[in-house]
Each structure stands twice: as structure tokens, then as C-alpha cells.
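Course assignment 3, question 2. Fill in each field.
Student: A.L.
Task: Predict the tertiary structure for the chain below.
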Amino acid sequence: MLDLRRIEPLFGHLSTSGIGNTQKGLHVLSYLFILKGLEERSFVRGSQDPTFESQEAEACHWSVLKHMAQENGEQTLAHLRSNVSRWLRALDPDSCLRDADAAFCQLLPHVIYRLIDAIDRLCEESLSVGSVFDAIIAYAGTLGAYSPRAGQILTPPHVAQLMADLLRPQPGELIVDPSCGTGNLLAAACQYMQVQNAYASVRLADGCALIDPQEYRAITGDLLGYDIDLFMIAPAYASLLLSCLDRPGVREADTLSNRFPQRSASEIWGNVDVVLCNPPYSGVLDANDLSESLRWLGTRSTELLFVELCRQMLREGGRAALLLPEGVLRNTLKAAVALRKRLMTEAQVRAVISLPSGVFLPHSGVKTSIVLFTKGEPTSEVWFYRCTADGYTLDAKRRPTATITDLFDLRMHYAARFGETPPFLARGVSVEEVWEQYNLNGDDPATKYVAPEVTVAAAHPFKGTPVAPFEQVTGLRVTEATTERAFVVPAEQIASNAYSLCADTYRDYSDSPGQMFDRKVRGGARRGGRG
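Answer field:
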């Protein structure tokens, strides 16, 4: 995959324009990638893409801008600030595109060509324009573009893809992230829907997919993202555009405020089909402006408030996947217990997936879990899965360990548990044989373990052009499980433990491996460590 060090010159060019603030630099780069993405889309769709129909639009092509910038930087800057900005604003006047002029005016004329050329070089060496932008978002994080103290801990793309794969958003559904950050979760939802409709695609070692550019098609349905931080809107818009969403619905909003439900009542409140959310942990909150519907919790904890917000936004039967710190799942504060009780009694908590504590390193060591629930019927039992490896080293360097991951087994186990088919493999990798082994003679799936088979390639799988080496899943292997990963806990036992949804509350470590495979926990709960 793209070496993050290759991105450093981009921010160096921005610094020579006086843009030393990384967050502002990412903001400006987002608009350049929007322009790049629009041209790439027009190449794929040809005459079916109306984006560049007018004569004014033709002059806004990325390639035209590059040629102009090489010849005359002053003229290019004037063109960006007037014609290009006006054209972008007309494409989507209610979006961040209306602010393109403010972004372009920060550039100096002599830097424009350097930036465009550097972006082109990175894209030529990479699997897709979107993968380059993902790497830029990650690199910006290493330079402090996001503030963990303000609750900004961005969802790693491979975790976002896992959440989308488990939740299975469908075309035509209303999909919302009320705290979208740079848009990773909504982009993962886009990718999930793209893969289901694409004939040619491959699965990368991190669980994300690469689709043949010729297979890209517009996503039908509404994907809406909101964030309180204005500087997150343009990166999120670019991420979704590069994920083939024609008109990303990303807006600046404080979704916990009184104004949000009033403004959104007729549009989304109580009508959402799917919620994907990684709420801010210990985020900043204006308590005086807190939504009336959330005040019953009696807390200023943003992570608790966002869980209730997500529940309220869903329609009956709507489903959610939330990435939450384990404090939300286990602490015994009155608000936390009340929230979990409402979640258990007014929604069906389907699964809790305990993730390793190093998932957010180097930015945070917080221990998190994914909670999946459906609004409506009360919970009768909860399926827990303990994930101990996510395909990366659990230290600050987070080096890839492609074959050391539980995430492929988790996808398979979840599908078997809930009577679904595996959602995660591209059509280039057959799952029939593996699926047959996994369900052989009705064996308990927890007695099996699935790991990916990975190969390293250095050519684009569809274009055949040289790219930076990447790891691709070429198959799966099934072995006997050596450790316990999953178990089910009845709702009655959860209620008797202050509605704790933390896996450590119920795991009986006195049982030897193999004795608790996917069965209901019996007897008293063991309150250890985190319980």
C-alpha cells in the first residue's frame, strides 16, 4: 500500500503557500481531490456523465487545470477562484462546494502545479484515487490534524468496513452518521453496496475491496453525514465522492443540539434505516443547548448521548452499528445503566464485538467494542465475539500483519450465527467450499476458525499497471479453533449485572478453551478486571 512518507511533499508544498496548519492543509487538498475525482468519474461514465457538458465545465477538467498551471500559475489561480469555484458551487449549492473559493484563495500561484503533479504521481502509483486520499487522511492524523481531547478519534478504514459488512446497508435505504468526521463509515457503506453490484472486484488484506473502475456506478439511496467541525466536512465530502456517491449529503451540524431535531424532524427523525456511528469520546458539549429529547439521561457524556441519539433517529426495525468505548458498556453510573436498560428493552441488541485496545493507536489506547442493534423488539440474548487481532500490530507503529487477524473469522461466524451468507468476499474469491466446511454437518461454527490466504502483488489487478506493492486476499482456510471467541448471554443475566454489555463481565476464564463454544453462559457472572 502507499507509503505515508510519499505524502510528505504534498504538505511541504502547502507549507510554502503559508498553510502550515495540517487541518487547513487537508481542507485545501480535499477540494483538489474533489476535482480529480470528478474527472476520473467522467472518464468511466463517458457520455452518461453530465458533469462536464457545458463549455465552462470543460475548462474545469483536472487535466486542463494541470496544463494551465504549468504554463501560468497566476492565471490558474484566478481561474480556480472564479470559474472553477462558481462551477463547483452550481453542482451542489447546499454543500461545502460553495466554499471552494475560500480554499483556493489560500494557495500561491507557483504551488498549484506542484500540488497537482504530486497528486497525479501518487495516483499513478496507487490502486485508486480514493486509496490515495485515505492515506492522506491517515497521514494528516500523524501530524495532529485531529484532536482526541475534543473527541476526534477517526474510525480506521478496516474497522469501518467491518461495521458496514456486518450491518449490510442496502441501496434505497436512508443511511446516517451523526458524527461523520472524515466520512470513513459512510464511505464503507458505499463500498459495501458497490461490491454487491460489481462483477469484478478483489478483496484487500485489510478487508476493504477494490472494484474495477468500469464497474463503478452511482449509489441509489440517501447517505447523510453530520459533523460539528467545519474542517471535517470537505474531507468527508471528498471521501464519499471518491466512493462513487454522486452528491454526498455531508453537512455541518451539532446533532446533539436542540436545533438539530427541529431542523431534521420531517427529513430523517425516526425515519432512518441504518445508522453507522463512532461518536466523539469525551467530546465538547454545550449543555444549555442539549436537545430536549436527550436530557432525560442527565449526563454531559457525549458518547452516552450519541447512543441515545442514534436510537431515536432510527425507524422501527432500523438497525445500527456503533463503535463505543467500553466505559459506555460497563460503567455503573446512573446515566450509563439507564441508557443500556433502554437499549436492551426498546431494541434488539444483536451482537457486541470486543476489539483489541490498540485499534486507535497511536492516537489513543482506548478499549472499544462494536454494538449492533435493531430498534423495536426487546433483547432476549446477546451474542459476544472477542476479537484479539485486527490485522495490525497492537502498538504505536500499527504495522500490517495480514494473516494475523480475527476479522475474517468474525464475518464468517456472524453470518453463520444469524443465518446469513458471508458478506465479505469479492467475486474473485470463492466462498462456497469454505462455507460448506464451516457449516459441515451442522457443527458449531465456533469450533472452526477462518483465516485469510494472502499474496503480495505489484500490478493493478484491473489495469495491469505497476503500483506500490499491496496484499490481496486470494482465499480462506478453515482450521480447528484453539481458543474460545464467541458466547451468548441471556438478557436476564445482563439485567442482573447492571445491564453491562462488556464481554469481560461474562467470560468465565475458569473454563478451558473449547468448553464454551457459542453457548449460553450459565451460572453467576464473573466480575473481573473490566466488569
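Instructor remarks: Residues 7 and 136 are 7 Å apart (CA to CA). The first strand starts at residue 174 and ends at 177.
Grade: pending
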